[in-house]
């Protein structure tokens, strides 16, 4: 268990204003549940909403429904040392929240609040709890102490135990609208950077992921990755060569990028408009036309399975994992091309 990171803002993002107002109404009328799950796509600011709510609850002199930033409670939160606020997330270098971490949190919740108000825990992401950890949390959800609140940040609610979900008030936070995000993102971009709309397309519409693309050489890395994959699809590079390069990157991030493209291809294959695929080279698009939809869906399921295993704390050999996926992609393309040739000869 750790205190929340003191690098914070007291405000939720503007696209969460309606949810913020609803939560403020519950707090004002003393109707907050004991557990709230903030569920929605990754990188849309759910963690920020959770922190803003926690700071507001612990603030002694809120202003216009927000934490004041000046009282003793806010000063403690600035320092990351508020005794009645804790967070639960994977330990450094890990991907799973372990049972010992949850047991520490349940002990924390069982004690009286030192400042005389709420005791709060932010769990981010909730799906990182392994089975034992999730079961250990159940007691706190089934028999909550007075004035306690658990805020679960969740990218994938189906990956959380149903017994956990059923004891939470679930707040669904959809992907924000593109126009509002462009208006928010554009003033934050430095000169000569890509346009806000292009960054959002690359980030799958997630605003914080779009902003993060400006860090370091992220855009260049993604473009190089895409060019490698296009060459693999066209038979110009081998899976082994590409896996050797990709293994130097964080594996989960690579799989998330890969899945975003596969899902774009899947939508494009059924006639939906997709900006990512439409901007790709014509030769690549023509090759993708050959893919049988049922084979593509089975392949996507395999990549999703690998992603879930990584999120659950598995630690596979990265190069072997990537080699297998890319070899399977090459095999999928060969099958699709051969089926197309056979159809043409018939």
Plain-language structure description:
Residues 1-8 have low confidence and may be disordered. Helix 11 packs antiparallel against helix 16 and helix 12 runs antiparallel to helix 15 (293-311). It is built from 16 helices and five strands. Helices cover 53% and strands 7% of the residues. It is of the alpha/beta class and 346 residues long. The protein has two domains: 14-172, Rossmann fold; 195-345, Zinc Finger, Delta Prime, domain 3, CATH 1.20.272. It has a five-stranded parallel sheet, with helices on both faces.
CATH fold-type name of the largest domain = Rossmann fold
Rounded mean pLDDT is 89
CATH H-level superfamily of the largest domain: P-loop containing nucleotide triphosphate hydrolases
Please indicate the count of domains. Answer: 2
Main sheet overview: 5 strands, parallel
Separation, N- and C-terminal Cα atoms: 65 Å
Task: State Rg.
Answer: 23 Å
How many DSSP-defined strands? 5
CATH architecture of the largest domain: 3-Layer(aba) Sandwich
Strand order of the largest sheet: 2-3-4-1-5
Total number of helical segments?
Answer: 16
Assigned CATH class of the largest domain = Alpha Beta
Helix content, binned percent: 40-55%
**Range of strand content:** 5-15%
Order of helices and strands: HEHHEHEHEHEHHHHHHHHHH
Stretches with pLDDT under 50, minimum 5 residues: 1-8
**What is the molecular shape?**
globular
Structural class: alpha/beta
List the helices and strands and how they pair.
Layout: H1 17-28, E1 35-39, H2 46-58, H3 72-79, E2 85-88, H4 99-110, E3 119-123, H5 131-142, E4 148-154, H6 162-165, E5 169-172, H7 178-185, H8 196-202, H9 207-212, H10 218-233, H11 239-246, H12 251-269, H13 275-278, H14 282-288, H15 293-311, H16 318-345
Parallel strand pairs: 1-4, 1-5, 2-3, 3-4
Helix pairs in contact: 4-5, 11-16, 12-15, 15-16
